[in-house]
C-alpha cells in the first residue's frame, strides 16, 4: 500500500503520518508532544524513539544499515521470530526467523487516553511462509509511543496443530561509551556464554564490558537497568512473557567485519533483549495466543 493510501486510512492529524523511507519502504513517523518515533513497516521494527525532554535517542540505528528486500535493518528493534538464533531444525533456514526481513501490514493506529500513539503491524501466513515454516498464524506487534515506549509482540495460532516458537525483541540501545556502561539486575543469574562455547556460568555483580559479549540469561528478573554514565542516564527495561534475557555487544573484530556497522559502532550500541530463547520454548495451542512485552523508560 502506498503512503498516500496509508495516510488516508491510518494517519492521525498532527500526530502520525506515513512517509517513504530509505529503500522505498513506508515508515510511520510519530510526533505527539510526548515523544518522536520512527517505525519501519518493513521488518515491523521501530528505528527511533526519543522522549520530548530527552537530548538523545533511546535506540541505536547504524548509519550503514541495509534498506533492501531480504536484509534486516541493523538497529532499533528487529523482531526474531518464530525462532531465535540458528535454525532450530538445522534445515538451513536463516537465523532469527523470517519476519525481520519482510514487509508487514498496517493493522491499526489510535491515540490512547493519556495522549500516547499506538501503532499495530502484522504478518499472517502465506504460501511463501508455509514453505519456510509450515504453520498457520497471525503475528502482530503494537508500539505505544508516549513518555515511555511499550512493545507487545503477539503470536496467535490460527491453525489446528500446536506449534513451538522462540523469539526476541532484539533491541539495540544507544549508549555513550561501552567502557562506561553497566547492566544492573542480573547479579546471581545463570547464563549461557555463547562466546565461551555455550558454557553455563553465574553472573557475579554487575555486567560490564571489556570484550565481545553474547549471553543468554535464564530466569532473569522482570526489570533490568542499563546504567550509562557517558550519557548520564539509566534505561529501565521491564519485560513480560519471557524467561530469558540476551545481552550482546559485538566488540572490535565483529563490528569491523559487519558490512552494516561502522568499525567503531560497538562503542555506541548495546543489545539487552527481551526473549524466549535457549530452553525457554513457548508452545502455542490451536486457537490460543501468547504475548511477549517490553516497556522502556529513561531516567536521569
TrEMBL record:
<comment type="similarity">
    <text>Belongs to the glucose-6-phosphate 1-epimerase family.</text>
</comment>
<dbReference type="InterPro" id="IPR011013">
    <property type="entry name" value="Gal_mutarotase_sf_dom"/>
</dbReference>
<dbReference type="Pfam" id="PF01263">
    <property type="entry name" value="Aldose_epim"/>
</dbReference>
<dbReference type="GO" id="GO:0005975">
    <property type="term" value="P:carbohydrate metabolic process"/>
</dbReference>
<protein>
    <recommendedName>
        <fullName>Putative glucose-6-phosphate 1-epimerase</fullName>
        <ecNumber>5.1.3.15</ecNumber>
    </recommendedName>
</protein>
<feature type="active site">
    <location>
        <position position="170"/>
    </location>
</feature>
<dbReference type="InterPro" id="IPR014718">
    <property type="entry name" value="GH-type_carb-bd"/>
</dbReference>
<feature type="active site">
    <location>
        <position position="273"/>
    </location>
</feature>
<dbReference type="InterPro" id="IPR008183">
    <property type="entry name" value="Aldose_1/G6P_1-epimerase"/>
</dbReference>
<keyword id="KW-0413">Isomerase</keyword>
<dbReference type="GO" id="GO:0047938">
    <property type="term" value="F:glucose-6-phosphate 1-epimerase activity"/>
</dbReference>
<dbReference type="InterPro" id="IPR025532">
    <property type="entry name" value="G6P_1-epimerase"/>
</dbReference>
<dbReference type="GO" id="GO:0030246">
    <property type="term" value="F:carbohydrate binding"/>
</dbReference>
Amino acid at each position: 500500500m502506498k503512503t498516500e493510501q496509508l495516510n488516508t486510512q491510518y494517519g492521525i492529524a498532527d500526530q502520525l503520518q506515513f512517509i517513504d523511507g530509505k529503500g522505498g519502504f513506508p515508515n510511520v513517523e510519530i510526533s505527539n508532544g510526548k515523544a518522536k518515533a520512527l517505525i519501519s513497516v518493513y521488518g515491523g521494527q521501530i528505528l527511533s524513539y526519543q522522549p520530548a525532554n530527552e537530548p538523545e535517542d533511546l535506540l541505536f540505528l547504524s548509519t550503514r544499515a541495509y534498506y533492501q528486500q531480504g536484509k534486516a535493518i541493523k538497529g532499533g528493534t528487529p523482531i526474531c521470530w518464530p525462532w531465535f538464533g540458528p535454525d532450530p531444525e538445522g534445515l538451513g533456514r536463516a537465523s532469527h526467523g523470517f519476519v525481520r526481513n519482510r514487509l508487514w501490514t498496517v493493522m491499526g493506529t489510535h491515540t490512547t487516553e493519556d495522549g500516547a500513539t499506538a501503532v499495530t503491524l502484522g504478518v499472517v501466513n502465506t504460501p511463501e511462509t508455509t514453505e519456510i515454516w509450515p504453520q498457520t498464524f497471525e503475528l502482530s506487534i503494537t508500539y505505544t509511543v508516549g513518555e515511555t515506549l511499550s512493545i507487545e509482540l503477539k503470536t496467535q495460532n490460527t491453525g489446528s496443530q500446536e506449534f513451538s516458537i522462540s523469539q526476541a525483541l532484539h533491541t539495540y540501545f544507544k549508549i555513550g561509551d561501552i567502557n562506561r556502561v553497566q547492566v544492573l539486575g542480573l547479579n546471581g543469574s545463570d547464563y549461557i556464554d555463547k562466546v565461551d562455547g555455550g558454557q553455563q556460568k553465574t553472573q557475579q555483580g554487575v555486567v560490564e564490558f571489556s570484550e565481545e559479549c553474547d549471553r543468554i540469561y535464564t530466569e532473569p528478573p522482570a526489570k533490568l537497568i542499563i546504567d550509562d554514565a557517558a550519557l548520564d542516564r539509566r534505561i529501565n527495561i521491564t519485560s513480560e512473557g519471557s524467561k530469558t534475557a540476551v545481552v550482546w555487544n559485538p566488540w572490535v573484530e565483529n563490528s569491523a567485519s559487519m558490512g552494516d556497522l561502522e568499525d567503531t559502532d560497538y562503542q555506541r550500541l548495546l543489545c539487552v533483549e527481551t526473549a524466549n530463547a535457549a530452553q525457554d520454548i513457548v508452545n502455542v495451542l490451536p486457537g490460543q495466543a501468547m504475548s511477549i512485552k517490553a516497556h522502556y523508560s529513561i531516567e536521569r
